[in-house]
Amino acid sequence: MKSYIINLDRSPGRMQRMADRLNSIGADFERVPAVDGRLLSEAEISDVYRPLAGAAAMTPEEVGCFLSHRKCWERIVSGTDAYGCVFEDDMLISKQAALFLGGGTDWIPRNADIVKIETVGGRVWLDRVVSPLTGAFKLALLRSFHFGSGGYILSRAAAERLLAVTRVFSDAVDHVKFNPACGIAGSLKSYQVIPALCVQTQAFYPEGSSLIEAPALAVHSDPRFPENLENRPWLERKGLQALRRAAHKLLRHWRIEILFADQPGAFGLEQAG
């Protein structure tokens, strides 16, 4: 399984840091030159992006970010591996990632479209069935939206599907892959590695730390989904949240904060309601 590193030409230092880590864990990787959204013309953007009526527009950087991920999907489809791993270049990668990226893919479920190996530090709902992996890691189906596209494994079949439905797009890349409000995400089998194998510096280091890097490709714009609870009146929002929690509990899903594998307490799986 090859890893694909999205990297802007103006950020050689980031690529070197990623290369050093991936070389140290024995991972096969390839640099994918990122599409710089700031350099896209209005015509180039309008060719691929269709704004949602009444919603905030995607930024040019977000469009470039999406096109960069599509370049990775194209490489996965044209390759011979059943899976490919995609990284943005501002990720911290665990030393324990060698257990999964430096060898075979037998640990990936056959029905997996996506395996999310990243965390942004928030709580997510997971399926009640949890599979043990090597090194005390675990794997479970994602049952809620988990923000972020900094690190994920994608099957060749899913990459082909995603390319077909995103020749023109309206939503940021992580929403298309993981947010059920965006269509295809609801039909993809997305798993979560617990704890996560990678994390963005801005999600890991304390606020104000000199080690924090700006997002690799884009700062996300305002939420633009009609189904987003933040757009609902307070009472309606609270009611819908309660109904969603009840539905998850009825299905015996469980909620957990996904931690980064290299931080203390990362392997203490505490189930929450």
Question: How does this model look, in words?
Answer:
The chain has eight helices and twelve strands. Helix 3 (60-78) crosses helix 5 (156-165). The protein is an alpha/beta fold and 273 residues long. It has a single domain (2-257), classed as Spore Coat Polysaccharide Biosynthesis Protein SpsA, Chain A. The protein has helices at residues 12-24, 42-48, 60-78, 98-101, 156-165, 173-178, 201-204, 234-250; strands at residues 2-7, 29-33, 83-88, 91-93, 114-116, 118-119, 123-132, 138-142, 151-155, 190-194, 198-200, 254-257. The strands form two sheets. Strands 2-1-3-9-5-10-8-7-12 form a nine-stranded mixed β-sheet, sandwiched between helices. The two termini are 36 Å apart.
Main sheet, how many strands, which sense, barrel?
9 strands, mixed
Looking at the structure, the CATH topology is Spore Coat Polysaccharide Biosynthesis Protein SpsA, Chain A
- CATH second-level architecture: Alpha-Beta Complex
Instruction: Please identify the structural class as seen in this structure.
Output: alpha/beta
Brief descriptors of the model:
273 residues, alpha/beta, Spore Coat Polysaccharide Biosynthesis Protein SpsA, Chain A, nine-stranded mixed β-sheet, three-stranded mixed β-sheet, 29% helix, globular
